[in-house]
Amino acid sequence: MIRKCIHSILSTLLLIYSVGIGAAQSLFSEDSIKAIGLPVVTIETVDSEEPTCEYVAHPEGMAGYGIRNATKVPGRLTITLGDELLYDSGSYAKDTSGMRIKIRGNSSAYPAKKPYKVKLEKAADLLLRGDDETYSDKDWLLIKDPDFRQHIGFETSRLMGMEWTPGCRYVNVVMNGDYRGLYLLCEPVERNKRCRINVSETGYIVESDAYFWNEDLYIPSSLSPFGWTLKYPDADDVTEEQLAFLTRDLAQLEEALAGPLYAERIDVESFARWLLAHDILGTWDSYGSNLFVARYDSLDSKARMPVLWDFDAIFMMEGTWSNVHRERFFFQHLLSSRDRVFASRYLALWEELKTSVFDGMLSFIDEYEISEEAEAVDASMNLDAERWHYENTSLRDHLATARAWFESREAWLEEHIATEVREPYRILDIGNSYTDNYTGLLPSLAESACLDMGGVSLFKLTRSGGSFRSWTDCYHDSDEQPYHFRRVLGAPVVTADSDADPNDGSLFRRVLSEQPWDLIVLHQRSEYAPYYEQWTGEGDGGHLDDLLAIIRWEQPEARIGFQLIHSYADELTGIAGNGSLARWEQIAESVKRLTLERDISVVIPCGTAVESLREQLPGNPADYASDGSHLAAGLGQYTAACTYFEAVLAPLFDVSVLGNPARYACTEAELENARYPEACVDVTDENAPVAQQLAVDAVANPYSLSTSGSKPCDRMEPDSPIYNAWGIPVSRDYPGIRISCGRKYMRTNPGR
C-alpha cells in the first residue's frame, strides 16, 4: 500500500515537472520570442561552443573585478523581425563571412547573463539604418539594459549634441537554441572615419580606465588613480614610436589639465558638455570606465571628449553633483580656474541646452511609453526575468523613475549652478569714508528689489582720507595707515571683515592679486577732487597713473570705474554764493577729463545726483551733509546708494532703481552724532521716488544736473505717447516706470 502511494506521488510530481518544462519551452520558443515584436538576433556557434572567460580579482591597492582570456567563438548571426530575415552574416569563414563572439565587460560579466562583443568577418550595419555603407563596421556589442537607463543615457547624449552618440536598438537574443534575454544592440566606442569617432591615423582614442590593471598595455597617469588604456591604436598593433608619442602627449595633457594653460591643450566645449551631461543625469560612477579622450590629429587638434558611455549609475546623485564634478580627476580644477574659460563655457552650455534637453527628454519618455516598441520591450523584460530568475520591474516603472528625475533635476541644477558654478561678478571699490557713504544702503535696495546677489559680489577696501597716493604708497609698504576690507553685498568670494594686521600693503596686494575682479572702482580724496591738474603729479593729490599701473599689472582684465563724488556743503566750500554747486562743477569737469584721457569704463555719478537733490525746492539747509563733508543718514545717503545701484547693479540685473520700495528712518544715534541734525532726512514714500529719479538722470547724464523736480510727471507733454521702460505703449494711468521724450521716470500719481 505504501509502495503504491509513493509511486502515485512520484507520478504526480513527474507530471507537474513535465508540464513545467513544457510551459517553459513554450515560453522561450522561437515563435513566442518572435511574436513579441522586437528584432531577434540568432547566434549559432560552430559545434554549439559557448564563449568562456577567466574571472580575476584586482591586485592589492586597486579596485574592481574583471575577466581575462575571453574565448572568441566563431559562428553565424542572423537578425529577423517576425518571419522576415533582415540580416544574415553567413556561416563562419575567416575574412569572408560569419562572425566571432566573446564575453565582454568587467564586473558586468560575473552574473549568469553575459554581455557580448560580436566581430563580423565582413562589415555591416546591424542596426539596419539604410542600404549605403555609411554605418558599416565589424564590431558590435550586445549589452544588458534591465532598467532602460542605457537607452535614456544615449537619448540624453543625442539631445546634448555630443560629437558622437552610439546607435542602439533593443533586440532579443537566442544563442544555440537557448533564449539569452533582452539586449541593447549598439555600437562600441572605436575609430570609424565614416560613422563613429573620426580620428586620423595619427590621432588616438584612450580611456581613463579603472580596470587598467587588467590590461597587458596601459599608460600610467599622474592625475588620476587610473591608467590610460588604448582604443585606437589597438594595443596589439601599437608601435614603439606610437607608444612613445602617446605617453608623452598624455603627460603633457595631464600637466595642462592641472594647470592654468588647459585651454591650449583641450577642446573646452567638449569637456564642458561631457561634464554637464553627467551632472544632468546625476551619475554616481562617472569617473571610471566611461571617460574617453580623443585627439583627432597629432599635428594640430586638441584633446576632446566626444562620447558618453555607461549609464548603469545614473539617477543616483539626488540633491548633489555627479561624482566626477566634485571628486577625482580634473573637473573641479577646471571649474575653479582663475581664467573662467571652462566655467564660462559650462554655464553657456547650460543656458543653451537646458530647455531643449529637459523638455526633449520628457517628450521622449511620454512618446516612448505609448509606442509599440515599449510594449514589446516590457514583454521582453518579463521574459528576461523569467529566464534569469529575478524579480522584474515593469518598463512603465523605469520610465516613471526617469520622468521624475528629469522633472526635478532642472530646478536643482538651476539653483546650484547659480550659486556654486556661476562666478559672481566681482566688484572692488577702493576708496575712503565716501565709499561707506555711498554703499551703506545698497544691501537694503538690493533686498527690496529681490535681487539674487549670488551672481554679484561687492567688496570695499577703505582707509580714512584714502587718495591715489596713499593707496600707491600702501601697495609698496611705504604707508602704514590702518585700512579695512569689507563685503558690502553678494557672494563671499574672499575672506571679508578683515583688518590689515600689520598695517602694511600685504592685504592690499593679496586682495588685488588673488581675485579675478571684474570692476575696480576708484575715487579721489575730496580735498583734491576738483583739481584735475594735481591728479597726475607727484604731490599729495597725485599718483593716479601709478595706481592705475598697479591695478593693470595685477588685474589686466578688470574694467576700471570711477566715482564722481559729491561736493562739500556750501558752508565748507569757502566759495561765495552757491559754493556747493560751483565745487561740484569742478569735480564733474575733472572726472569728465579723466574719462577722455584714461580708460575708464564706468562713471558712478553719486555726486551729481546729490547735487541735483540739493537744488530741489525747498532744498535742505545743511545740504544733506552731516558734518559739511560726509553725507548724512537718510535721504542724502539714500540718493547716493540709488545712483550706485543704477550705475552698477541695474545693468547686471536689468532692473532699474525706479520704484524700489526701500525706505529709511534716521536713528536717534545718527541725529545725535550729526553736526547738522537737520541734514538727516527720513526716506519716505514722498521723497524716495524723487531720489530714485535723480539717480537715474545722473547715470544717464553724469555731468549735468537734473531738473526733474519733485513731480517728475510735470515734464510730460500732454499729447506725447507714454511708454514703459521696455518701450511698450501704456495707458496714462499706468503706475510703473515710464519713458517719455527719451527719459525714464516713475509716475507717482496714477490717474492724474
Task: Explain this structure.
The chain is α+β, with helices and mostly antiparallel strands and 752 residues long. The chain folds into 5 domains: 1-35; 37-186, no CATH class; 204-418, Phosphatidylinositol 3-kinase Catalytic Subunit, Chain A, Domain 5; 424-702, 3-Layer(aba) Sandwich (Rossmann fold), CATH 3.40.50; 712-752, no CATH class. It contains 21 helices and 24 strands. It has a 7-stranded mixed β-barrel with strand order 1-4-6-7-8-10-9. Strand 2 (54-57) and strand 3 form a beta hairpin. The longest helix has 29 residues, at 341-369.
CATH class of the largest domain: Alpha Beta
Number of helices: 21
Looking at CATH, the homologous superfamily of the largest domain is: SGNH hydrolase
Helix content: 25-40%
C-alpha Rg, in Å? 36 Å
Instruction: Tell me which CATH architecture of the largest domain applies here.
Output: 3-Layer(aba) Sandwich
Mean pLDDT: 87
Tell me about the largest β-sheet.
7 strands, mixed, barrel
Q: What class, by secondary structure content?
A: alpha+beta
Choose one word for the global shape: elongated
How are the strands of the largest sheet arranged? 1-4-6-7-8-10-9
What percent of residues are in strands? Answer: 15-25%
Give the CATH topology of the largest domain: Rossmann fold
